[in-house]
Amino acid sequence: MSEKSDLTKVAPPKELSNEECRSVYQRLSRRLASFRNSAELSASMEAALVNTDSAFRMREAFGDALNAWAQETLKHIWYACREPGGGHPPKFDPLSDTSTVGLAPLPAQEHLARLLHTVLLLHVTSGKEYSSRTRAFVFSIGLVDEEVIAATLKNPRQAIEEANRKTEAAREGHARKSKVLRMVGMGVGAVAGGVLIGVTGGLAAPAVGAAASTVLGFLGVGGTAVGMLATGLAGSSVVCGALFGAYGSKKTAEAIGEYTREVKDLAIRPVFQPRETMAVRLCVTGWLESPEDVTAPWTVFRGDDTFALQWEVDALQKLSNALTDLIKAQAMQYIKGQIIKQTFLAALFAALSPMAWMKITKIIDNPWMHTKMLAAKTGKVLGTLLAERVLGSRPITLVGYSLGSLVIFEALQHLASLPPSQTIGLVQDVYLFGSPVSTDRAQWAAVRRVAAGRVVNGYGSNDYVLAVLARVSGMNWGVAGLEPVEVQGVENVACDQVDGHLKWRGMIGQCLARCDAPGVDKAEVQRQLERKAKAIGEEMGMTEEEAEQAVQAGPGSG
Fold first, then answer.
1. 108, 131, 228, 372: which has the highest count of C-beta atoms within 10 A?
2. pTM (two decimals)
């Protein structure tokens, strides 16, 4: 049994006075308004950039969905803070004050965390989903322990029993006042006569609700919150099924199977054994030296369940071989040598003869363009699968490099085209590296709207291989993998150590760490640098003497 499962950790702290709870509510409600307004700005920016009637209708629909989410969140905050002012839950006003100047500070982390745990548990159990908006908002306020929430949902009986144990001494002093309390003191199993349910290992639902109500009341939880929490815990098996039950199920297999005619070899692979965490990552590799590379780059992650998308393995392996041949071509050696001598790419490309470009195109054009087309198609399929919650109704973070980034980008464009009420709480963070996608502001604004948390564009301005690939495929110089994306809310992170596209494979962990991405294991990052990145660097590397020889040899002309 999990040591995290404990009702005292998800109940509002009774150590806070009513006035302190009122102050917390006031500060959080204003922070919520500010968070909501920032999200609406993304939608407004997108609409202004696209400037069509449908874009402005999408903005209105997004605003409606955002306000509905904010209203529910405000209600849960109000319940957790002991319903300050009494009466009915307050109505969220999009024009409400966002300033926290002059307000009382938030309570100590210990008490704040428990209050935020209550908000999360109310949110998850009432909606039977965990919204990425809620997660991003709560994490912007303070630290929370999502394992406590997950453990409580998975085993409500243990959570109640642990709360009993912790409060036993105090309960004995009040036992004479309540026969119910004496029954609870005998052990929660006695309340229900030991009737268990198979899914959660807890009590039958009515008994869980009754026991939870009693214990929560003793912990100082009152009003609507006690009823909602008790009801939520009573139905925790249903909540767990919605949050965690999708991966590996027949439903998921059938959903993915529907699209295998369009995209070959499509599958979702766990990087590590899933632990049913409150949030999930999905990572997408850009090419494959071997099938193991579907998951191998992503072992740098810890914490949240991490999966990798397997797609078009044969095509990605052929692309890997073509990229290796490309960097050995005389024209590419010449480009690399000139870069070492600090010549600008634009000037280099202008100096290459048509015959040299023809040689480069012959090596890379077919595998690159073919796989790029498959990536775009896979992205649309992935967008559909994400909308169907194939990894559960929990926040998802998307991570990819090279054509893996293109897959994710296309998936996000698909999600951006769907009704916002279906997608507003789906995606949390997005990390894209070396992306062979346009810097088009309207498309990136759409990504910014869909994501509740961070949108990161990791680029390598010295990635001469991507520059060549972009030129061969007819892309203009506005390539996100080579330069910043000028859209408010998109974080641009320079990864200049990646001076050749193949280096993303060994350096992706280092670049994620540079972005302060959550859950990155620095020890594993170092191992990948020492093993994979070093091997790739040796293969692609060039000394100054070799650079001089390559420049003297020229780009080749025939």
1. 131
2. 0.88
